[in-house]
């Protein structure tokens, strides 16, 4: 299962790696009761997460109804997801009639939300990130729910702290992070009111060669754009590892809702990562500013105790990302803005 290549050749190989289920994930699907729905399937994570679930079912030799729900602003993405063998429901989850038309399956993954542009459209940000979760918690009150959140609900912490733990008090900075805490509170409320088993995933950050913090740094180094050290440290996890952990979280849903930090083990230095990319590209990175003593950092010991350590090393991730850029392959072109320190995305 861990026969990772030295270099990812194309999108097809990358998609296979992102959606490759671990043996533990396949075993879980053998035990899992009921069908599966992915709300907000379109985007960076949804397609590979749902495909991993489909592949896990196939490898487990079981049949489940796997459903993807989205507005699908891109027809090409909709076609791609349908070709994976995933049943599609197209519509706006904020429309009550559409939401109430959805089948009430046993297992629900909530991926819908808004981050970029949140400062320009605060009302929609709150509707997507707080109001919609309240609707979902009510409609799927008899399901198990795994809902994506963000490590940004924590405050900036000292870089030597080891990162925020699930037991730490949230102190969200800016309206985006505040609305994400609102999302969590709505699922917590639904969990308590309806006795719904829930896991809240505080992800910080999932990366792959087309998107993420590593791509943000790598493209700046490659194009001789200054790398800002304002946010000098960060955590990342390979999206394939995160996908496996998120799927397996279904077995750890609880009432009241359980919180899980999902990220890598290391606290990474922006300066060090930029220098490593510089070696790959044969370029001296342009580095500006000084590292602050604080950053958004998560402690993921609880998840690692449940699922084991991530299978992909940071060194492999660096090489894959660097080679992807070096080969001039397509990236998503959506900066993470990880360097933002005031919460304004």
TrEMBL record:
Pfam families: Epimerase. InterPro entries: Epimerase_deHydtase, NAD(P)-bd_dom_sf. Gene3D superfamilies: NAD(P)-binding Rossmann-like Domain. It comes from the Bacteria. Residues 39-204 form the NAD-dependent epimerase/dehydratase domain. This is NAD(P)-dependent oxidoreductase.
């Amino acid at each position: 299962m861990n026969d990772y290549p030295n270099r990812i050749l194309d999108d097809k190989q990358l998609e296979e790696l992102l959606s490759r289920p671990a043996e533990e994930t396949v075993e879980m699907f053998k035990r899992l009761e009921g069908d599966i729905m992915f709300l907000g399937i379109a985007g960076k994570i949804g397609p590979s997460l749902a495909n991993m679930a489909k592949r896990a079912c196939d490898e487990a030799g079981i049949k489940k109804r796997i459903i993807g729900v989205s507005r699908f602003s891109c027809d090409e993405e909709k076609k791609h997801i349908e070709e994976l063998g995933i049943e599609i429901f197209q519509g706006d989850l904020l429309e009550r009639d559409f939401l109430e038309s959805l089948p009430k399956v046993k297992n629900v993954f909530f991926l819908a939300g808004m981050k970029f542009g949140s400062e320009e459209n605060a009302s929609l940000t709150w509707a997507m990130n707080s109001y919609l979760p309240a609707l979902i918690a009510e409609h799927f009150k008899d399901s198990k729910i795994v809902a994506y959140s963000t490590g940004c609900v924590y405050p900036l912490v000292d870089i030597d702290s080891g990162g925020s733990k699930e037991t730490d008090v949230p102190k969200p900075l800016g309206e985006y992070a505040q609305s994400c805490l609102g999302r969590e509170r709505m699922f917590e409320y639904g969990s308590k009111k309806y006795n719904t088993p829930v896991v809240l995933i505080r992800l910080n950050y999932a990366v792959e060669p087309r998107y993420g913090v590593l791509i943000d740094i790598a493209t700046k180094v490659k194009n001789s754009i200054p790398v800002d050290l304002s946010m000098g440290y960060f955590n990342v996890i390979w999206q394939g590892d995160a996908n496996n952990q998120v799927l397996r979280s279904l077995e750890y849903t609880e009432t009241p809702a359980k919180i899980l930090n999902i990220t890598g083990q290391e606290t990474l230095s922006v300066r060090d990562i930029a220098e490593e990319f510089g070696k790959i590209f044969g370029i001296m990175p342009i580095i500006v500013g000084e590292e602050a003593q604080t950053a958004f950092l998560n402690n993921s010991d609880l998840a690692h105790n449940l699922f084991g350590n991530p299978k992909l090393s940071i060194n492999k991730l660096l090489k894959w990302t660097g080679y992807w850029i070096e080969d001039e392959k397509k990236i998503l072109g959506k900066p993470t803005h990880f360097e933002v320190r005031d919460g304004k995305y």
